[in-house]
Amino acid sequence: MLLFLLLTLQTSAAVGQIDPGHCRFPLGLEDGRVKDEDISASSKWYQTTGPQFARLNREDGDGAWCPEGQLERSDSQYLQVDLKVLTFLTLVGTQGRYARGLGKEFARAYRLSYSRDGETWKPWKNRQGNAVIEGNKNTYAIVYKELHPSIIARYVRLIPVTEHSSTVCMRVELYGCPWHDGLISYSAPEGQLMMPPAYPPASLNDSIYDGTHERRPLFGGLGQLTDGVVGQDDFLLTHEKQVWSGYDYLGWRNDSLGTQGYVEMEFVFDRQRNFTSMKVHSNNLFTRGVKIFSSVSCWFKPRLIANWELEAVTFRTVLDDRNPSARYVTVPLYQRTAKALRCRFYFADVWMMFSEVSFQSGGNLRPDFKTSPHGENK
């Protein structure tokens, strides 16, 4: 039943790209790696139904976390988990309060919110804009729900939802893997609408971006460039269902950005890092006016409250007019140390489109992540 959770992590700490299909490790609620003090809640019914008892497949205390009183439709009671490190979350498992056959309470639905810093909380929504996740139908069966899109966060809140006044209890496990990139936000111009002749329109915006839109630029969040979904060779095709053409890409038209001829992006990280390289997945369907960037220049900032260093790293690509395949372009960063980067990607044609950006930096050690009991420990 849990075979889909058992997938192998790559051994090199420099690998930055994450495949959501491989990132499904239990994060430690059930086996106790997440400590009691790192599980909190808005309330509890009794001491024996406190947040520390919200552990999947466990029967400690009175068998689950139960918020105080009857849950109403307008309530926002929550269970909060501190994972201690930035984590790429792909899956949630929930149960109700079985309590050795005496329990009757479970959550039929719930919402998620998350935070990377413990201060700014963001509501999770799926790719169609729905926030409510279907929960349990009894107290004992585990219900797994995949997160599309995945979440990058340190803190996660599960918020039970009810249509009618009822008592709710939950046991949970979170699944994912460490977010080695350490990227906590990127900023960029908002993506644009492409109207190719004889083809459907392609909306190349960042539809899952969790930051803000101030005077149109994307600011202070993460989105499709870090969701682990790599765009196809034909940018009109998509891996997702019930979405529009061009969904997997963030894209810009050269003449829409003035005469500057480049797209400027800023990347902010959790701490100062020693960068080896940046990988940018770019479309190269040149028959429709799309090519990888011709060159990129990156500046570095050691602290957020500091000036950009004057010396940039500049990398020129080898343009390809024969192979229209999308591809990763690896940009060497020569062990430059920084907490923030500003990069200018220069156009090689009318359009430029990215589906993923990842960073490789030194000193990123992997925590001891365990597989389920049916797999091999890594």
Structure described in brief:
The protein has strands spanning 25-26, 39-41, 79-95, 109-115, 122-123, 133-134, 143-161, 171-178, 183-188, 193-194, 202-203, 212-213, 218-221, 250-253, 262-282, 295-301, 313-316, 327-346, 351-362. With 378 residues, it is mostly beta strands. It folds into 2 domains: 19-178, Jelly Rolls; 183-362, Jelly Rolls (Sandwich).
Key features of this structure:
378 residues, mainly beta, Jelly Rolls, 9-stranded antiparallel β-sheet, 38% strand, disordered N terminus, disordered C terminus
Helix-strand blueprint:
Layout lengths: L24 E2 L12 E3 L37 E17 L13 E7 L6 E2 L9 E2 L8 E19 L9 E8 L4 E6 L4 E2 L7 E2 L8 E2 L4 E4 L28 E4 L8 E21 L12 E7 L11 E4 L10 E20 L4 E12 L16
Antiparallel strand pairs: 1-8, 2-3, 3-7, 3-8, 4-5, 4-6, 4-7, 9-13, 9-15, 10-11, 12-13, 14-19, 15-18, 15-19, 16-17, 16-18
Summarize the biggest pleated sheet. Answer: 9 strands, antiparallel
Number of strands: 19
| Number of helical regions | 0
Average pLDDT, all residues: 90
Report the portion of residues in β strands.
35-45%
Class inferred from helices and paired strands = mainly beta
End-to-end Cα distance, whole Å, is: 20 Å
- Please name the CATH architecture of the largest domain: Sandwich
CATH class of the largest domain: Mainly Beta
User: Uncertain spans, ≥5 residues at pLDDT below 50?
Assistant: 1-16, 364-378
Order of helices and strands: EEEEEEEEEEEEEEEEEEE
Write down the Rg: 22 Å
How many distinct folded domains?
2
- Shape category: elongated
Q: Could you estimate the helical fraction of the residues in percent?
A: under 10%
**CATH topology (fold) name of the largest domain:** Jelly Rolls
